[in-house]
Structure formats: C-alpha cells, structure tokens
Design a protein that fits this description.
InterPro entries: DUF5752. The chain has ten helices and two strands. It is of the alpha+beta class and 218 residues long. Helix 2 (39-47) crosses helix 5 (92-109).
C-alpha cells in the first residue's frame, strides 16, 4: 500500500515593511549602507517589490536600480543593477556581494561623487512576512490544476518566493510536495520567478501544471 501523501496546507501572507534607520544620499553612501545593513534588507529590496505597489520604471525592477536611475540619474549603473537576478545566488550574502562589486566598480569609473536630491534619499528597509492559514487543503497534486489560477498573490509569494529562501528547503513548496512527479518538478524549476509579476508567475505555474496533468491523463 503506497504511503499516504501529507496534505498541502495553503497559506497566504502580507508584507510588513520596517525601517533599518540606514539611509544613503550618494552612491558612496549606498555602498556603505549595503555593507552595514542585514542581509534581509538586501533581500527585501530585490523581492519585496513583488508584493507591494510599484510606481518606478518597471525596467529597473529592484529598488537599488530604480533609485540609481531616478535619484542619481546614473543610467549605466542602473542597467547593471537591473540585470542582477537574485534567483541565481545561493544565499542573500552572495547577492549582497554581487551588488557591492557592481557599485564599487562604478565608483572606480566615475570622476566625482554622485548625489541624490535632498528629498530623494535611499531608505534601507527590511520586510517581515505575516503568514496565515487560508484553511484550504490539497490531498493530491492534480488538485493544483484547479487551485493555481485562483490562488492569491500573497499565497504565490509565500509558496514560491519565500519558500526558495528557506535554508532547509531551497525550492518552492509545490515542488517539495509533488514528490513522485519528477517531470512536473523539473518543468516548474525552469520558471524564473524574478523577472515577472506575481500574476504572471501564477499564470506560468498554472499553465505548466495543467498541461502536465492533461498529458498524464491521456
């Protein structure tokens, strides 16, 4: 008799943004701030934008790139920062080191300091997730076909983005749960969760899961 699969507990989350008390008025200040803040602040400025309303240029989809572009008006550096994919790094400390290296390289290139207007300081923040149980339970992986298209964006963030950052896990909750469906897990692993919106991420997961179980049923 096959071992019974544990139920998938669907959770949701909300983001609470907290100040670190560290600010930057210049490119040098940004570099020094990056050295000083906890790594969860760096994480927040890359991933937190998925859960909050963004009014910056979507081309610069992390907060560092957006501030460098719009406050310091340094397009070359903004473009370098914008192409950093946090999903490529084993942990947030490695991500921080990459950002520091890019900023330091730019500091070496420019001839003078770059300052932001007085009212456009960069405020280093950190995010804290408030997680709650939705009451929804899944017993079999094929039930994801019906669930995913109507899953809240907070649930997508928790089960995909937050799950990947957990030290003991490193993959999203769906892939952890669908043990026995290696092909589906491999397809989901090919989806980059960063250069997209949560809506698009949800749609991609829904399409892959639906196609997999449609083929599996034939």
């Amino acid at each position: 008799m096959p071992e019974q699969r544990n139920a998938f507990i669907v959770k949701d989350c909300a983001l609470v943004v907290l100040a670190t008390g560290i600010h930057a008025q210049s490119l040098q200040g940004l570099y020094e701030g990056l050295l000083a803040v906890p790594t969860d602040s760096v994480y927040h400025h890359f991933w937190g934008g998925l859960l909050r309303a963004r009014f910056d240029d979507p081309e610069f989809n992390n907060d560092f790139a957006a501030w460098v572009r719009h406050a310091l008006h340094d397009l070359p550096l903004a473009e370098r920062l914008a192409v950093i994919d946090p999903a490529d790094f084993v942990d947030t400390e490695a991500l921080r080191q990459e950002v520091l290296e890019v900023v330091e390289q730019r500091l070496d290139e420019i001839s003078g300091p770059l300052w932001a207007p007085r009212d456009q300081r960069f405020h280093f923040m950190r995010g804290q997730l408030v997680v709650f149980d939705t009451g929804l339970r899944l017993s079999e992986p094929h039930e994801l076909v019906e669930l995913l298209p109507k899953l809240s964006l907070g649930s997508m963030y928790y089960h995909v983005i937050d799950a990947r950052s957990r030290p003991t896990q490193g993959v999203d909750d769906f892939r952890t749960w669908i043990d026995g469906h290696a092909g589906l897990g491999e397809e989901l692993s090919q989806i980059d969760p960063y250069f997209t919106s949560l809506q698009d991420l949800r749609d991609q997961y829904a399409r892959v899961v639906s196609a997999y179980f449609t083929m599996d049923a034939r």
